[in-house]
């Protein structure tokens, strides 16, 4: 059997990874500034992470959501402490799309409504519900799941005020749009969204799957605005490569047996990975590192000619050029051995490990300056 061929692949086979570096089967070293779409939060193969996962391996067969799994509560407690949302509750699942699906479900259970407000260029995942609130018609399934969704221009305070009514179930927004181009939600927009949701009884969902987990320099990127959402969704960096997703649910929601469910969500290995991530983030002050290295990159990127706009926060950085970035990206990868991503045709997207080092920043800045000049 062959794999269903939906991903264009580079002819590179990584066999080893450490920190922000990868090595392919020929021993060539690469700098990883993309981390598999923001997944690598604490760095590849961190010893604490490897140890935690290894310790849990023998527990796999005991897994079921109908028995007590202490590491789930350890995860919830540590997540509450580090994020500052210790009064919220945690539902564990397996991916970002699944987290958003459950968030939308919870919102509709809460207020019995169906209409959802989402935003231009939003990306929330590839399940039917998550696709419905994603502004990319190329991935919409033929079934019309989106009949209840209204897309508004991103960051448009007036449009939000005009469209939010007492019929709206939820407003779902990324604090910083990832796939949509590293667009940062303004404080004014987030505060208005909080206010209008309170006024109309709509649920405010912050999709923090890509921009959360310390990437912006705060635990959640919306923390810069001081608002507290009703629901936050996470995945990606939560497990540093191990699949796990989570829904953080405010105290206004009351859990009922059978309300949500999952077979694999909260399994031992996923929880061990997520606990290790939180331990390392705390121990190594990775959010502070994300702010420092982000500021350093932003300052120095400003000196490079040909960049149209820099967007983002911390270590979630969009570098927009006047022209498509495919050649720049290929040169960085094939000549300078640096992995970067893209968001839209003209924007390079950096989502490195939050433990990115100074020398690694300099290696990228030098390589980019050379590439752009050539
Ligand atoms: N939400 C956001 C903001 C994302 O960037 C993504 C994935 O890129 C998702 C949700 C979906 O996550 P997953 O691919 O884990 O389902």
From TrEMBL:
InterPro entries: Aminotrans_3, Class-III_PLP-dep_AT, PyrdxlP-dep_Trfase, PyrdxlP-dep_Trfase_major, PyrdxlP-dep_Trfase_small
Keyword field contains Ribonucleoprotein: no
MF terms in GO: identical protein binding; pyridoxal phosphate binding; transaminase activity
Keyword terms: Aminotransferase, Pyridoxal phosphate, Transferase
Pfam families: Aminotran_3
Cofactors required: pyridoxal 5'-phosphate
Family: Belongs to the class-III pyridoxal-phosphate-dependent aminotransferase family.
Name of the protein in question: Acetylornithine aminotransferase
Organism annotation: Arcicella aurantiaca
Higher taxonomy: Bacteria, Pseudomonadati, Bacteroidota, Cytophagia, Cytophagales
